[in-house]
Amino acid sequence: MAKASNTAKPAAAEVNELIGNGGELHQQTSDPAHWLTTNQGLPIADDQNSLKAGDRGPTLLEDFHLREKITHFDHERIPERVVHARGYGAHGYFQAYEGNDELTKAAFLCDSKVKTPVFCRFSTVAGSEGSVDTPRDVRGFAVKFYTSQGNYDLVGNNIPVFFIQDAIKFPDLIHAVKPEPDRAFPQAASAHDTFWDFVSLTPESTHMLMWAMSDRAIPRSLRMMEGFGVHTFRLINAKGKATLVKFHWRPKLGTFSLIWDEAVAIAGADADFHRRDLWDAIQGGDFPEWELSVQAFDEKQAAKFDFDVLDPTKLIPEEIVPLRPLGKMVLNRMPDNFFAETEQVAFCPANLVPGIDLSEDPLLQGRLFSYLDTQLSRLGSANFQEIPINAAKCPWQNMQRDGHMRMRVDPSRTSYEPNSLDMAAPREAGAAGFESFAVPTEGTKLRQRPESFADHYTQAHLFYKSMTETEQRHIVAAFAFELGKCKEVKVRTRMLGRLEHVDPELAKSVADKLGMPGQADKIDPAVPTNFKVKPSPALSQYRDPPQTIAGKKIGLLVTDGSEARLIDALIRKTKAEKAKVELVAPKIGGITDSEGVHRDADQFLAGAPSAVFDAVCLAPSADGVKGLVKFAAAVDWLRMAFAHLKIVGYVDEAVPLFDAAHIDRNADDGLVELKNGKVTDFIEAAKRHRIWEREPKVR
Ligand code: HDE
Question: Is 91 helix (H, G, I), strand (E, B) or coil?
């Protein structure tokens, strides 16, 4: 079995620093455990200079150390994932609750005493590996469970439905959303002609478009995202009984999103916003947690739904089938090495364990082929499962042999079965092993969508109808933004035609925002929208959000002379609420507070716009504010916090900043004065996260 890690570091050694002839620094040690070596283990005397004919002469081909070092460097890159290239992962564990054995015999879901190790990778879909963290996009949510029965992968997204119904359309969808092939832009964006051309010609994408245009596609944090298995799966219990399920991950911190303008600002201020957030949280001991649940139902119930459970563009409203919690996942350790773990991790929906099985969803069926296939070109060898992050943590053995980069040394004379020459060789497990659930199947070989997949608008309408006014406003704005980026008028008018079937009001609002009223194409749907469908309040993020600042970040703007008592109180009280304060000062060197004590700054003003914080607090001194009002970054800090609907706390000394930003301090109750150094009112207000009522006034 592959070793989990071979990177254990020896204790720090004594290092001598010498300056060489050419003035270069040589760091040397006499401790063999710390010697720099070639890949063959040869200790290296000098890593600063190549081997040359004379100190000013040409480099010699003989220099095997130089050649080895450069050759390895030349081959450091592997192909990035064709989708979900930009991702970030963490280790953790999953622990089941009691009582799941009624549903499944999967050992890791049944034994509540076992902590099953997991590796979880979050990702954007369209952008390449070096793109930013906050574009409007679906987020991948992939979890590898290293169970005692082999690896189980739940490879989901943060949105419960998908753009297409059949795997055969996936390359088209992705080609449409990726940068346009002649010009190679835009990067990590769906706001362009080819995407909207394709989806406006693909009515089945309509429901997913509603989600993609909602705030779900601009999450505040990877820690504040839901996850979904999307497809219907089967759980099988020890008696062989199958239950159909949809998987859901719910974040303990609640589901929060950015505002579009904020996401755009963050993309410039901190392209790594999401990964930094996850890194900071886990390194700081604040471990994010999700609850895994299923919506469980049987074939009889499924037959009564007015949609097909094999259709991945449909969801089951929780009001019809409620969530049943199975256990929790905690992420508590960052990888030691990004490439070795996060980049090389290989997920596959076909990685199953006894007790969990597939369904006939035609999108899922295609995925079963794609993931293994893509790993072969991405990781370059059929032995990729031997890479430590991919290796099962239970014993694994079979008759597969050889190939590029085979690590495992199989000692047996036999590499086939049945055999009678090695009685210790691996054998079948029979009923203890994985058995596909016996689904009765028969049919004519054909290429045809079932009629039960044909209603593309009712659930899109259901989603829109279930949103709060704020959420609806954001959806309208997102459609208008994205379609506004399309140069082709026919793409816009076609999409407006589709939106009429989702909701005529929505279509009208988008058309108005585009300045194209009455220009929607007339489109005949295969199945007319059922506008009477019952809304599902559970689909809304903002109807009943948790009132908490846990996991959030408050930016505290300070200057020389800022009140020490207030700074300490805010840090203390915020910590008690499991949130964090960052001190933002005009300069990174920090400030001297009212008590004459030096305080380091976490951020400098021009490098940390208020967009990167959940709430802000302005606590300059009377002298300090005089400098701030002349400083555009400071005025913008307040202006943008207000425009992003944040809770703003302030001390009396900060009033000139409000004047400079032309903001009325009494505009709404999200602007909270900290009287006599009291921070409680501000913290309580910050639990509201945003003042939605402010939005129509500022945008
Ligand atoms: Fe994927 N998808 N996908 N996908 N997918 C990949 O596999 C594919 C789909 C998802 O963090 C690729 O290893 C096809 C739905 C995630 O490493 C590739 C179809 C859902 C990740 C692939 C889909 C997903 C991937 C690219 C339609 C949500 C990132 C690299 C039939 C349920 C996993 C790789 C990670 C990655 C194919 C549709 C989720 C090419 C053909 C639906 C989270 O194999």
Answer: strand
CA 364 to ligand 1 center in whole angstroms: 10
Q: What are the tens digits of pLDDT across the range 229-281?
A: 999 999 999 999 999 999 999 999 999 999 999 999 999 999 999 999 999 99
CA angle centred on 332, ends 327 and 336, rounded to 5°: 135
Look at ligand 1, atom 39, and give the residue with the nearest C-alpha.
156
What is d(CA 593, CA 452) in angstroms, rounded to the nearest whole number?
Answer: 68
How far, in Å, from the CA of 329 to the mean position of ligand 1? 21
Tokens of 132: 């930013």
User: Could you give the CA distance from residue 167 to residue 198 in angstroms, rounded to a whole number?
Assistant: 15
378 is in an annotated binding site: yes
CB-count exposure of residue 315 (10 Å: 0-12, 13-18, 19+): buried
Cβ 141 vs Cβ 225: under 8 Å: yes
Helix H or strand E encompassing 289: strand 289-297
Centre of ligand 1 from the C-alpha of residue 360, in Å:
17
Can you say how many angstroms the Cα of residue 584 is from the centroid of all Cα atoms in its chain? 27
pLDDT tens for 607-661 read: 999 999 999 999 999 999 999 999 999 999 999 999 999 999 999 999 999 999 9
243-258 burial by CB neighbour count: b if 16+ within 10 A, else e? bbbbbbbbbbbbbbbb
Q: Are 674 and 619 in contact (CB under 8 A)?
A: yes
Q: Is 87-182+220-386 assigned to CATH 2.40.180.10?
A: yes
pLDDT at 5 over 50: no
Which CATH number does 455-539 carry? 1.20.1370.20
Q: Cis peptide leading into 418, omega within 30 of 0?
A: yes
Q: Is 688 annotated as a binding residue?
A: no
Cis bond leading into 186, ω under 30°? yes
Ligand 1 geometric centre to CA of 348 (Å): 8
Q: How far is the CA of 431 from the centre of ligand 1 (A)?
A: 31
Q: Residue 34: helix, strand or coil by DSSP?
A: helix
Instruction: Pick the atom of ligand 1 nearest to 141's CA.
Output: 43
Pairing state between β 591-592 and 598-599? antiparallel
Cα 565 to Cα 676: distance, rounded to the nearest angstrom: 10
Q: Give the number of other Cβ atoms within 10 Å of residue 434's Cβ.
A: 14
Query: Is this complex scored with an ipTM above 0.95?
Result: yes
Where exactly are the structural domains of the chain?
14-48, 87-182+220-386, 455-539, 553-698
Is 67 annotated to bind a ligand? Reply is no
Question: CB of 154 within 8 A of CB of 437?
Answer: no
- Residue list, ligand 1 pocket, CB within 6 Å: 81-84, 87, 121, 123, 140, 142, 155-157, 162, 167, 170, 230, 312, 345-347, 363, 366-367, 370-371, 374-375
Residue 665, annotated as binding a ligand: no
Tell whether residue 121 is among the known ligand binding residues.
yes
* CATH 3.40.630.10, domain 553-698, yes or no: no
CA–CA distance, 676 with 534 (Å, rounded to integer): 51
Give the atom of ligand 1 at the shortest distance from the alpha carbon of 373: 44
Lookup: tokens for 36: 């720099």
370 Cα nearest atom in ligand 1: 44
Catalytic residues: 84, 157
